[in-house]
Design brief:
It is built from 13 helices and 9 strands. By secondary structure, the protein is of the alpha/beta class.
Length: about 260
């Protein structure tokens, strides 16, 4: 059963909950769906499912390695959607991929595949804002919301448009770099979150570089929540079982629920 994205996250935010979205790469391990279930049980409010692409320009070495494993194992957009169709995670599922993947299948077929798999949100990381219309015309009839990203370098004028056009939530990219783990958070991330709060009423989540529970707690003093990816994917690639990955996500959940995080 699919769970709506924007309405679910907004309701949880409005109840005073900080949001935790966990990214993992579909097909990168044999038990990736079991791991998805474990992160939900550990407190994830939504799961962002990567659909592998051979040239993932936004992603760093960890997620690139996961994409390579997934492609070698035969993961494609239709196979990922088919696997998700048999799952009932109980939280919104967001697919993250690149424009060429959607174009290869056609926007209408892509949206249809994903909707059949219970996906209710999509991030096309390299889709230009100016070319959003044709994709959204295919996605909206399938009940799919399109999540847009904003970077620290985004101009105020463009931020305003992103705030108006994004659906589900607004993804604040926390640093001017590819995805990956980092020792310290870039201060431009929280500044971007503050700017986005002025242009959208949707939840604003900070991702890219959120690595540790301490990072997540600090981010949630400003943001409505966080997206954590590479730190989860690395554990999966290292062979950690679902329960161990779930334990890490539980530590993130505890951190974002801490009183200091909720004070923002």
């Amino acid at each position: 059963m699919s769970v709506p994205l924007g309405a679910t996250l907004a309701a949880r935010r409005d109840d005073g909950r900080r949001l935790l979205v966990v990214y993992l790469m579909a097909g990168s391990t044999k038990g990736w769906l079991e791991t998805a279930g474990a992160v939900v049980a550990a407190g994830a409010d939504a799961v962002e499912v990567g659909v592998a692409f051979s040239d993932p320009v936004l992603d760093g070495p960890v997620i690139q390695a996961a994409a390579s494993r997934a492609l070698a194992a035969g993961a494609t957009l239709p196979t990922v959607a088919s696997e998700l169709r048999g799952a009932d995670l109980g939280v919104p599922v967001v697919a993250m991929t690149y424009v060429n993947v959607a174009l290869a299948h056609g926007y209408a077929r892509t949206a249809g595949h994903l909707a059949a798999g219970g996906v209710r949100g999509v991030i096309l990381a390299d889709l230009p804002l100016e070319e959003l219309g044709p994709w959204r015309d295919a996605a909206r009839p399938e009940g799919i919301e399109t999540v847009l990203l904003a970077a620290p370098s985004t101009s105020p004028t463009r931020l305003a448009r992103i705030g108006q056009e994004t659906e589900g939530f607004c993804y604040a990219v926390g640093r001017m770099a590819t995805t990956g783990e980092q020792a310290a958070m870039d201060p431009r991330g929280p500044a971007l979150v503050r700017a986005l709060r002025d242009v959208t009423e949707l939840p604003v989540l900070l991702g890219v570089g959120v690595t540790t529970p301490a990072h997540a707690r600090a981010a949630c003093a400003v943001a409505d929540g966080v997206v954590v990816g590479s730190a989860v994917v690395r554990r999966m690639l290292d062979g950690e079982p679902p329960e161990a990955v779930g334990a890490f996500v539980a530590s993130l959940r505890e951190a974002v629920d801490a009183p200091a995080a909720l004070a923002g």
